[in-house]
């Protein structure tokens, strides 16, 4: 299992497959099994060199408990540290949710190195709106009952869709996560630099924005894709956030064609 030091944090990842390099970034409270369990790695490894990263605070990577460890510069720095360790001058990125925001930030930071991005469950890179940090109740759940309580909170939020959107393997991923690291990463996210709307019209990196119909009822992903020069969106009927992130069979064909177009070499 390869590792790289990024600052003073150890980042763990897997690298498999042959072809154009594609860095995979999972969502918050998850780990890199979100790419293996739903079948993405099996589907993509024959035509891509897949670099599947445990984002800092997750999986086998180090899990700092200080919020300062989760700045935008730190998270994007990890991506480039892994790429450098693998000898990748240019690489596409596919990010799920939290990992999708990191994909946007990495592309904005070094568009000469990132020829294309794909995001699942995160389509709007503009600055985060001001809102109470605990509006979703996740911080309170983590503090009071740890990751098991967070899963219970997800059950409340998702209702009848929970088992479909968040299968048993995904629940297990959350339960084994580090609650203090999750809380630390939440405390600093409001400081992350978004991309101002006026800059989206000249955003230099092609982006495919994937969203489930139930998480993006107004089809905002299509609106954001229309703002950027080489944007594309994919709407997944009947799926919410978790379902959209796990829907490899529905997303890989479109993502493959998109990457074939914009990352041809």
Which descriptors would you attach to this protein?
42% helix; eight-stranded mixed β-sheet; alpha/beta; 17% strand; 265 residues; globular; 8 strands; single chain
Helical coverage, percent range:
40-55%
H/E topology pattern: EEEHHEHEHEHHHHHEHEHH
Q: From the helix content, strand content and strand pairing, which structural class follows?
A: alpha/beta
Segments where pLDDT lies below 50 for 5+ residues? none
CA radius of gyration is: 17 Å
* Number of strand elements: 8
Head-to-tail CA distance between termini: 27 Å
- Total helices: the number is 12
Would you give an account of this structure?
The chain has 265 residues and is of the alpha/beta class. Helices cover 42% and strands 17% of the residues. It is built from twelve helices and eight strands. An eight-stranded mixed β-sheet has the order 1-2-4-3-5-6-7-8, sandwiched between helices. Strand 1 and strand 2 form a beta hairpin. Helix 3 packs across helix 4 and helix 5 packs across helix 8. The longest helix is centred in the middle third of the chain and has 21 residues. The two termini are 27 Å apart. The mean pLDDT is 95.
